[in-house]
Amino acid sequence: MVFMHFKIFFFNSIFKKKLKMSGRFANIGLKKNEDGTLVNGGEVLKGKVVALYFSASWCPPCKSFTPVLADFYSEASEMGLEIVFVSFDRSESDLNSYVKSHHGNWLHIPFGSEHIQQLAKEYDVRGIPALIVIKENGDVITKDGRNEVSSNPPKAVMANWKKSVSS
User: Fold this and answer.
1) Would the pLDDT of 143 be above 90?
2) Phi and psi of 102, rounded to 5°?
3) DSSP string for 76-131
4) In this structure, are strands 29-32 and 130-134 parallel, antiparallel, or unpaired?
5) CATH number, domain at 138?
6) Domain count, the chain
7) Exposed, middle or buried by CB within 10 Å (0-12, 13-18, 19+), for 73?
8) Rounded-to-integer distance, Cα 35 and Cα 31, Å
9) Residue 154 belongs to domain spanning
10) Contact 48, 106 (CB under 8 A)
11) CA torsion 127→113→59→98, rounded to 10°?
């Protein structure tokens, strides 16, 4: 875990680009978990509340939280939530295995994409698992998405997040 914190800190200090949904995400290819198809991030995230899920298959707390998030998503997706998995897995096969065996039907950034570290820097991710909920333009709604998802029903959480999108 210490190595992961160092790795995130190291990359956060190198990458300077600011990644916003309204700009760069419009041209980012995201993979669908169900079949691996690449889709345009700007199109599939338009009008959605977006939860960036920073996680990895080798992380025990991530493995505990992922099923909770998958259950939450099964209800909240109908209310306008889209999850984008941002993987810190060490190999593409680890990522693919984790996605197929543990995840809901959400999107993920392809393995090895420069956007993984850019997002970690943009949202100051210091450890995993982290669930950062953002507006379509990239502004943060909450950095405490993990706690909110774990302790509240989807309907209440989504109402709160959607209210933040409007303000």
Assistant:
1) yes
2) -125, -20
3) HGGGTEEEEEEE--SSHHHHHHHHHHH--S-EEPPTT-HHHHHHHHHTT--SSSEE
4) unpaired
5) 3.40.30.10
6) 1
7) buried
8) 8
9) 2-166
10) no
11) 150
Instruction: Rounding to the nearest 10 degrees, give the CA dihedral for residues 113, 92, 48, 53.
Output: -100
| Chain segment 94-137, per-residue pLDDT in tens | 988 888 888 778 888 999 999 999 999 999 999 999 999 998 88
The token pair at 12 is 């956060």
- pLDDT value at position 24? 43
Rg over CA atoms, the chain? 15
Q: Does residue 50 sit in helix, strand or coil?
A: strand
Give backbone dihedrals phi and psi of 34, rounded to 5 degrees, phi first.
-65, -35
**Cα–Cα nearest to 160, from 146, 148, 143:** 148
Distance (Å, rounded) from C-alpha 162 to C-alpha 165?
5
* Distances, alpha carbon 47 to alpha carbons 66, 85, 95, 121, 158, in Å: 24, 18, 27, 24, 14
- What's the pLDDT score for residue 17? 38
What is the identity of the amino acid at 156?
A: A
The pTM assigned to this predicted structure is: 0.83
